[in-house]
Amino acid sequence: MLTPNDFIVPLFIDEGEGVVTEIASMPNYYRRSLDGTVKEVKELWGMGIKSVLLFIKCKDELKDNTGKEAWNKDGLMQRSIRAIKEAVPDMYIMTDVALDPYSSYGHDGIVKDGEIVNDPTVEALVKMSISHAEAGADMVAPSDMMDGRIGAIRQGLEGSGFTKTGIMAYSAKYASCFYGPFRDALDSAPGFGDKKTYQMDYANRTEAIKEALMDVEEGADIVMVKPGLPYLDIIREVKNAVEVPVSCYNISGEYAMIKAAAKMGWIDENKAILETLTSFKRAGADLIATYFAKDAVKLIS
Ligand code: PBG
């Protein structure tokens, strides 16, 4: 049985006021300025949804190779966290931690000589996480896949007195073609190459378990498997291997496929939504990040 409590709602936030943009490859999903985002969060809370996962679209002129806008106290992410906390104090705020929206190269890490450099990126992610915690985030969600970042972020948070801030680790994040629509939403497609040097090979099963166990060891409170639908086997294996809650991300491409087929009249959208989301629970997901959360809550209530 699905409940509103199962869902994490990803939100795309834009600068400006009164800005609402439908994502071209994600019909009926929007990027909103902060005013509209706050209204949306109030509505979600009213529907019984308890957690949101924030992503921001960074202005081009603020992007560079260091990603330093990511830890700007007055950056769009930090302002959003504060505004949402003020408007709906009990909404559980998770924040995306990765450099891609801030990177002039569209990569999740800092680039040197055409490669992503792990350790300097981890330092940047620690600063980013602390600044989200300072703004009031309940949980940071590193989606970058650098090595050793969970331990470093945990240490950084504790060192700054944020002993209660949680970490949801994207532990098993595969290099997937299904992220395409998301990259449209944030204008964050990699400028060169792909993400295969840091995201996982989709043919690999055992690495997912190793990564999840390592992240728990390093201090993760929740471990995530991503994408969702093509990786139900991995969700189950991770669930069997760890003692912490497991989440999965029903990602943008999975959303787009259902929307497109439904628009063509080839499947029943509502049935497809419920069947898909139920399959994640069956596989073992305790939490599901999904663009279908509102639809699902309407369907089950
Ligand atoms: C990047 C990030 C991605 C998503 C969440 N964080 C895409 C990527 O790795 O390029 C994808 C989410 C989705 O497709 O819905 N840090």
Explain this structure to me?
The chain has helices at residues 34-46, 76-87, 118-135, 149-159, 180-186, 206-218, 232-241, 252-263, 269-283, 293-300, and strands spanning 7-14, 20-23, 26-33, 51-56, 92-97, 110-112, 115-117, 139-142, 166-173, 222-226, 246-250, 287-290. The protein has 301 residues and is α/β, with parallel strands linked by helices. The strands form 2 sheets. The protein has an 8-stranded parallel barrel with strand order 1-4-5-8-9-10-11-12, surrounded by 8 helices. Strands 6-7 form a two-stranded antiparallel ribbon. α6 (206-218) crosses α7. The termini are close together. The mean pLDDT is 97. It binds ligand PBG. Ligand PBG binds at residues 96, 98, 100, 108, 143-144, 179, 182-183, 195, 251-252.
In terms of DSSP E residues, the strand content is 15-25%
- Helix amount: 25-40%
Order of helices and strands: EEEHEHEEEHEHEHHEHEHHEH
Order of strands, main sheet, comes to 1-4-5-8-9-10-11-12
Number of strands: 12
Low-confidence stretches: none
Looking at the structure, what is the overall shape?
A: globular
Could you tell me which ligands this complex binds, including any ions or cofactors? ligand PBG
Q: Which whole number gives the mean pLDDT?
A: 97
Q: What Rg is obtained from the alpha carbons, in whole angstroms?
A: 18 Å
Supply the number of helical segments: 10
Write the layout of secondary structure elements.
Elements: E1 7-14, E2 20-23, E3 26-33, H1 34-46, E4 51-56, H2 76-87, E5 92-97, E6 110-112, E7 115-117, H3 118-135, E8 139-142, H4 149-159, E9 166-173, H5 180-186, H6 206-218, E10 222-226, H7 232-241, E11 246-250, H8 252-263, H9 269-283, E12 287-290, H10 293-300
Parallel strand pairs: 1-3, 1-4, 1-12, 4-5, 5-8, 8-9, 9-10, 10-11, 11-12
Antiparallel strand pairs: 2-3, 6-7
Helix pairs in contact: 1-2, 2-3, 3-4, 6-7, 7-9
The structure holds ligand PBG.
Residues 96, 98, 100, 108, 143-144, 179, 182-183, 195, 251-252 line the site of ligand PBG.
